Amino acid sequence: MQARLAPGAARRLVLLLAVVLAACTEPPRFDQVSAQLAPVPAGAARIFIYRPFEPYQSVSWVPVFLNGAEIGAVGPGHVVLRDVPPGAYTIEAASQGLWPNQAKTVTVGPGQTVFARIGSSKGINPALDRPTTLTTFVVELVDLSSRQDRTFSPSAETSWQPSHGGR
C-alpha cells in the first residue's frame, strides 16, 4: 500500500521547508562589512552601540542616548553608529530597572573608535503590591585593543543590521 499526501499537503511541505531554510541564513557579520564602511571623517570619532543576540534575554528594542539625546534604538543583533566630534559622551540605554553604573561616560579623540555593548537582564520590582517583571539595560564599554580573546566583540557576536535612528 502506498501512502498519499492530502491535496495541498505537498505545497505546504515545500513552503515549510523554504521557511526553515530561510531561517537558517544569517545576515552578514560586522567583520564582513566593516571594511565597506566609510572611514571615520577627519577630526571625528566613531561610536558603535550594539546589542548581541542573546536568545534568553529581552528581544525588545531599546532607545539609546548620547549625552541625553536619543540617537536611535537597538534590538538584538543590531548596531547604531555615530560619527561625533571629539569630546566626552555619556552612553545610556532606556531601562525599566536600575543597576549601578548603568550608563558609561567615555572621552573620544579624533580618529578613535569606541564599542559599547548593551546587555540586558530580567528582574522584578519588589516595591509594588504585586511584583512585576522589569528589564534592565546596562552599557558596557568593550576594549577590543586590549583583549587577546576577540570572541567577545561585535565581529563575533553581532550581525550587521545598522539602525540609523529608527526601529
Question: Could you explain the architecture of this structure?
Answer:
- This protein has 3 helices and 8 strands; from the N terminus they run ααββββββββα.
- A hairpin with a 2-residue loop joins β2 (62-66) and β3 (69-74).
- The model is unreliable at 147-167 (pLDDT under 50).
- By secondary structure, it is mainly beta.
- It has helices at residues 9-24, 30-33, 154-157, and strands spanning 45-51, 62-66, 69-74, 78-84, 87-93, 104-108, 113-125, 132-142.
- The strands form 2 sheets. The chain has a 4-stranded mixed beta sheet, with no helix packed on it.
Strand order of the largest sheet: 4-1-7-8
Query: What is the count of distinct domains?
Result: 1
> How many helices?
3
Number of strands: 8
**Oligomeric status:** single chain
| Mean of all residue-level pLDDT scores | 75
Task: Tell me the CATH topology.
Answer: Immunoglobulin-like
Question: Termini, distance in Å?
Answer: 55 Å
CA-atom Rg in angstroms:
21 Å
Helix proportion of residues, in percent?
A: 10-25%
H and E order: HHEEEEEEEEH
| Shape type | flat
Indicate the CATH architecture: Sandwich
CATH class: Mainly Beta
Which class best fits the helix and strand makeup? mainly beta
Structure at a glance:
With 167 residues, the chain is mainly beta. The N and C termini lie far apart (55 Å).
List the helices and strands and how they pair.
Elements: H1 9-24, H2 30-33, E1 45-51, E2 62-66, E3 69-74, E4 78-84, E5 87-93, E6 104-108, E7 113-125, E8 132-142, H3 154-157
Parallel strand pairs: 1-7
Antiparallel strand pairs: 1-4, 2-3, 2-5, 5-6, 7-8
